[in-house]
Amino acid sequence: MAAFDIIVAGAGPAGAAAVRALAMCAPELRVAVIAPDQRRGRAQEEGQGRGQGRGEVLSPLVQPVLRQLGLWPAFVAQGFSPSHRTLTAWDEAGLTSSELLLEARGPSWRVDRPAFDGCIAMEACRAAARVDAKVSQIEREEDGWSVACDDGNSHSARLVIDATGRARALADRRGSRAKVQDRLIAAYAEAVTSGPSAPELLVEAFEDGWWYTLALGEGRRAFACMTDSDLARGLRLSTPDGWRAALAKTQFVAAVASKVVQFEQPRLLPAGSRTAANATGFRFLCAGDAASAFDPISGHGVVKAMRSGVFAAYAASDCLARGDTTALDRYDSWVAREAAVYATTLSEHYGSVSRWDGRPFWQRRRADMSSSNSLSSLSGQ
Question: pTM score > 0.85 for this model?
């Protein structure tokens, strides 16, 4: 059994940021990263119909986070494409453009998400021990945790960080549950196009949710229909015919799709908002989506995950290296405050759509906005 000060489970944006921050603020701590090889893990997930979509746009805020962690040169070397505007059809019939040419923090970035994750993990985790496995069991010990892996080996650590994303592979095993705030899913498909099309992110609301599409490069595009899981079943979004029928309800995304030669089979991916009831426990922290998962419409999922990883690392190092017994509680409070601000902002954004007040998707979100306003009024009394 290998012994470490800290085990970080997961090498996505949150886990990679946590490991990098630990190497910078507490290099004396022995850190291990437990995560399957990304190529092997991705093949398994896609074979089981899970995984993630490739196309993603990172907000301009990703640059200062990457610079803080010393990862900006590695990011730039990947040749990801800057994006200076986003096209949106939200509560108006027309298309609007959000220009970023004068954005002081720089442009957004269109990335191949698995390539981004792999690049950041490789650079960020160089100083840590790597364990190519998945966690199968976690048990509390007197001074920390024992973590068993699916490769048959076990490891111990004084503190554990769960950065396994929405899977919450460690948190759920220790009985910690997350509050599910909605049932949003993405019906995601990639396509081959017949000619050039606008590379920018295009977002369009429709009666049962919203769509997005963006260019992946090399004549490929990503398309996703965002709706609630029960509505997706009624729309048959897991079938090509149902997915295309929903696509036909859009105007601008459908126009882009008219240049498509071939669509792949759509995949249903979880995308709903969730927040851990408690992001910490006895020498245990959740980071990234394991702590709180944001709706993709926020546009800050990756940045939020990396910031969470950094703050989790600070809390972990304060706890172990400096003997600060309140560090984990402060981190837990930060996660809760961030989730509360996000919930209010999300409700306001969805509540701005009035074109389909009678449709279930939008009714549910307007109800969420009313509940949020009621709670705010009570808290102000």
Answer: yes
